[in-house]
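Section: Multi-chain targets

For targets with more than one molecule, the full set of components is provided together so that the structure can be written out for the assembly as a whole rather than chain by chain. Components appear in the order listed by the source. The example entry contains two components.
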Amino acid sequence: MSHHLFLLSPSDTPLYSLTHYSTKPAQTISSPLSSNLPTWSTSAFAGTLTALSGASSATQSHHVPGQGGGVRMGGGQDRHVIQMIANASLDIIEDVMRKDGTMYLKSVDKFNEWTVSAFVTPGNMKFILLHETKNDDGIRSFFHDVWELYLKTMLNPFHTAHSPIRSTVFDTRVRASAKKYL
Amino acid sequence: MATSKQYKAIGEDLWKGRTEKINAELFALTYGALVVQLIQDYEDYAEVNKQLEKMGYNIGTRLIEDFLARSSLGRCSDFREVGEVVAKVGFKSFLNITPSVTHAAPPPPSSTRPVSATQQSSAPGASFILTLDENPLAEFVELPEEALEGGLWFSNVLCGVLRGALEMVQMQVQVEFLSDVLRGDESTDIRVSLVKHLEEEVPVGDD
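Its structure, encoded as tokens over all components, is:
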């Protein structure tokens, strides 16, 4: 079972992304990190369509990949699906944000078997987690941890609000926290 | 000459009783903002180092008066004692850290004239190395790639402060960073080496 984490700035630029596979804790991450930040472009969208259509065994291309989420680990196409799901949930998050004052918005969206949970910081940073299983408490603690790590990164004078987070220390700590809670 | 323990006690006492405190995060953020702004203005890391050192120098020349007044310490008998006082009393009362000191004797003179221990430790070329195990200026800081390559010494202001302060007590010193944990080194080391003792200069215009 895997989880995908995205940190988005207030202007919705992606600052950090992480994929975590919690079945095998020893093997952490083979997958792309901040060097491979998703940039939303039309080619990505086209890739998403192919991923969507290609992953389902049936010929219908609307709905999505069947069992197992079609998540072939490390496949470039699936990242597009994940990113699309994450981006699509942003609207919903904003809606919920307006109504609800709290930071941890539980599951805001469900996309086949992927649930999207979100966490909004006071500074309007959005943390989005895609996960398959239900794990509210663990996810809440994980978000809090990531929030604290993010605060420490913000205190670095060389970091600005919209710059991608490239620190290896941050990365290691987020992974450790993911291992702990997810 | 007070012992090392006495210096520690003096430093501790000064920090606890006779200094106003501010929030450490605020201090670190202010200094960080200063360095980042200098980098944006000068765009050359060597120049930024120099400017930090100059700013430190200005601070140091004023700081020494305050320090001597509060601590009521007398003149140090030799350079070794200078190192002890700087580390245990100075750093403690201003930054609440106690760097460890490693003294190094000056290189042996070319003549074989015997030199007494005190004289030798005050001879030009004497030095000591301060090893900081924590640096309040650099809390939360991580240097970006360009700064690492460009050779930035983030806390270079400390070098200036030491140089300025010691110059006001008639010692001309050369202060430089040897290593910095921000750069990935094992420890943060500052070397202070004595260049010469300054003679009292008669102000120009006096008879």
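The interface with chain A takes residues 25, 28-29, 32-33, 35-36, 139-144, 147 of chain B (CB under 8 Å).
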